[in-house]
Amino acid sequence: MPPSKSKKAKGNTLKSAVKGLFQKVIDGFTQRQTEQAKEPKAELTPPKKPYRVVELFAGVGGFRVGLENVLKGKAFKVVWSNQYEPGSAKQWASRVYEYQFPDTKDSKHSNMLIEEAIAAGEVPAHDVLVGGFPCQDYSVAKPNNQSKGIEGKKGVLWWSIYEIAKKHKPEFLILENVDRLVKSPAKQRGRDFAIMLKCLADLGYVVEWRVINAAEYGMPQRRRRVFIVGYKAKEKLGELRSKQTPENVLLNDGVLARAFPVQTFKPSAPLEDENEDTGEELEEQQQMELFQEASWAPARTIIEGDPHEITENFNKGNAKHDPFLNAGLMIPGKGGKPSVWTAKVYPKYKGSRINLGDLLIPDDKVPDEFVIDSQSLKSWVYQKGNKTEVRTNYLTTFAAIQKLFEKAGVQAKLTNTQKRAWGKILAAYWEQNPTQGKPVNLTDEETGKEVAVTWQLIADTRFDYEFKEGPLPMPDPLDRPLRTIITSEGGSSPSIFKHGICRECAKNWAKKGKPLDHDCVKAGKFRRLTPEELEQGNMFPVNHTRYCKIDDKKTEVDAKHRAFFMGNALVVGIVERIGKTLVKG
After folding, report:
1. Same structural domain, 226 and 77
2. Which residue range forms the structural domain that includes residue 417?
3. Does the model's pTM come out above 0.85?
4. Which residues on neighbouring strands pair with residue 527, listed in sequence order?
5. 114 with 196, same domain?
6. 178-226 pLDDT tens trace
7. Is 384 in contact with 499 (CB distance < 8 Å)?
8. pLDDT digit string (tens) for 37-93?
9. Is 13 within the bounds of a domain?
10. 489 belongs to a structural domain
11. Distance (Å, whole) CA 454 – CA 472
């Protein structure tokens, strides 16, 4: 039965109303674009002499490599750097840094706790302060700024950045951290980042931030990190921001928007099938993207209170709300209340891309230690596969054993090696003694002393749980960028997180630029990534970490440490693009 005329009329009226609303949004967007085009734009030019840079938590020098690449070293020059790894006897990263960047009259490196270096007055005057600092708990226990992190030795490092910025007032700050920083801690999301923004506002800085996945801008690794750029509110660039709309800064004229262009809608996949409706569907898609762009607007937040009050109150009781999204702008406000604008943005990039296959060295140059033998390959395939199994947790048991050692006068350290050794012994013991049996003796790896652990203690502290883990590709696809390099990438032991390369596909890629269409696992020829390939995955020069300086002697660094460095490093290309934007616009 055909629809009545009244129903058709209602449908047409609704369509007309939706179309009118749509057009109203588009008209508003067009007007905003016209107004933004009239706004003044940032004029960023090279300095008359290189900006003096202080590099904190320097690792093996990622910030330095990136910034000193800009204008062939004529834009930025590191005058002082610091790298110290608590608990590391040989300080490997610092030794690599010292080898690559020997001290000169104008540039010094420090290998001491940053707090001690600040207290000793080692940090010189500078124009740019940079560093990739650990994501820790930045909560403030007292209503002042002299706080210590409450979770471990690295919890104080943000406050070192704050103290240096407060004293030296650098023109620019460029900081890097894991992307979860903007959402931490889990039960009070955004609190830590709010404390940081408030501190920087109190020091007189405008702040931009963006969560950037390096691979989305053509770089060779899928590494997602938050980058924070600060500049003085009362200087030319900072004053300009108060004359621009936050939308214009986030999408067009901001330092990070210029370095890494964005759009307001998620790029849609191209249509796969061509049919008679393709043209109409494409037009609808374009209309929808235009509507999304037109209706996009950043959310505004005002951060109130001092860091102590923010610790107590910010976003409390609202664990599902994320006050800070992947892009944002903070401008210090009157009365100590900074204004924050934040929004979700998406990468806008159509340039060339670097894939894993592009970084591989010739097969005949791969040392034997990186070849995966047929026996190990079975374990690699298992580690990379889909898993649902029952496992046993001994962490509470380890803590109880540690107390037994303390009673015996031994401070047993729960290193990974120690836990693995004890875990194997406990698992074997439990299998052999399903009911109460004799105690088992465990040895402290450092002192060699033993304690007797009773069956009942193990029974009371161990527990079984269902372990689930999804698969990762084996081998890693050569036509995509590397996955995130982690600190345990080195070493021959199989792991789901390490990269595995099909050697036959690698050979074909070198010849034809594509992998083979075959069963790689059945072919059975695999290898791991070499340190040189991992370095290129972070866009470091090849062999950047090959040597270090120990007791004034050139010393070769082992492959495991070199992989560890790259797991801690940043993607140099990100820093270089930020640096270029600061001096070239």
Report:
1. yes
2. 389-466
3. yes
4. 371, 501
5. yes
6. 999 999 888 899 999 999 999 999 999 999 999 999 999 999 999 999 9
7. no
8. 778 888 888 999 999 999 999 999 999 999 999 999 999 999 999 999 988 889 999
9. no
10. yes
11. 40
